[in-house]
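General statements about sequence and structure are easier to judge against a single worked case. For one protein, we set the task of working out the structure tokens from the amino acid sequence alone. The sequence in question and its structure tokens are set out directly beneath this paragraph.
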Amino acid sequence: MLTQLYIQNIAVIEKTSIEFQPGFNIFTGETGAGKSILIDAISAVLGFRTSRDLIRTGADKAIVTALFDRLSQDTVDALAEFGYEPEEDGSLLLSREFSAEGKNTCKIGGRPATVSILREVAQTLINIHGQHDNQALMAPDKHIKFIDSFADTENLLASYRQQYAQLQDIRKQLEKLNVDEAEKAYRIDLLTYQIDEISDADLKPGEEEELIVQKKRIGNSAKIVESITQADAALNGDDESEGLVAMLGTAKDAIAMAGRYFTNLEEMAARVDEIYYELREYASDIRNYTTDLDFDEGDIDRIELRLDTIYKLKHKYGSSVEEILSYLEKSTEELSSINHSEELQQKLNAQLAQVTYNAQKMAEELSERRQQAAILFTDAVGEELKFLDMPFVRLEVKNEIGALSADGIDNMEFMISTNPGEPPKPLSKIASGGELSRIMLSLKNVIADKDQVGTLIFDEIDTGVSGRAAQKIGQKLAQVSKGRQIICVTHLAQVASYADNHLLIEKNIRNARTYTEVHSLDKAERIHEIARIIGGADITDTVLKNAEEMLRLAEKQA
């Protein structure tokens, strides 16, 4: 359950902290006050995609945090899966910070998290149902998802889709093999030429880089010889002077002699002794380099020729030696598969038959479960619709069995009959806006019983509804809130009157800037706000009495 929401620098909201209660929480306010911004803020902290345009003008970053308690087992399991756990008191804090530069910082329980992990955990905490959900009812291809949610087919559908993906992969492999003989002969000739060309080059990983180093070394051979000769002379000496090693050896012996009489010099003598032997080792290594400096100018031609070969192969087969070798491996595999295409084709056809059989059986099992669930689903939705003053509306699920697809063999579409005696017709063609809102609420309520999500958010679910139907929606939301937390944005007094916690969103202008604030209303303030919704700008005593009576009746019915 969501207990607290903190918002900073989101659109017109500079800073606000909102306290939520168990049961039915309502947001009301003037049009444009920022109700949709609250939903955007909640969506952001749940890990959904958000825009930098949401950041308040002049601010560098925006922050949203959400505190939850009474976590479901689904949430605890999701947290454990990603290595998180609730606080000792059973609460959980989610936070998200995003900047104008596009940087995102997400945290779960104070620990860093990715946006995808945040979203995975959050979907066990809150479901948001907005006006766009009504559009799902207008798209027949989305209807099957409602049945799957009700039928709890998630595991079976996931297993089926694995089989279907394997089926599609085998079909693609067969398509590659099913080329005509002329094309096959052309591919064999081309692949053979390419394989021979790359193989003859006998490339080695890292070879190009090593050749470039050798080329640079030969090109600077004179400088290298001169530098190493100078270093050798400085360390080992020459005909005219002794080197640093000999000089340091003399100094070492002298300090050691003096150290016999001055104990303070003993540590220095030991350190100089270490340096002497280390320097002598370096001098020996430098001398060895002077004997190994044998640059063959002819090698530069060999290196250039080799680099040219690599360059030509890169131009054809990849941007690096490693990519060329990878191309060689893939070409060899393809040539092998073509040469053994008949054998491979037989093998793939056998696999195709088996996987098709498995997928078909799973699709049929899935279909049977869906059709059984559809009967229970339509009955449950029918009961909801009766409560919402739509007693004669009958929902049916039309199902046409087709070929295997990602969703199985079912093509399901919701059909409704709005009046007795009328045949059911596609929902998308005959439902009005108000009917869609109530049908969607019915569907959501039926599906909601199938999960453990503790908070449901309805963003203007009452669009297109008024009068008694609006009152019924308020009653239904209040009824559902007995089992889980409901948060609802509404423009209707009939819905707002059923709230356990009424939150007012107000927009004010200070110093030529717009600020949105959220307040929890007491009873007197609720009466005034409901009166405003009923009567608009002119709030008379009669309107106030009507508002008070509406609240009283709602409390009695709830």
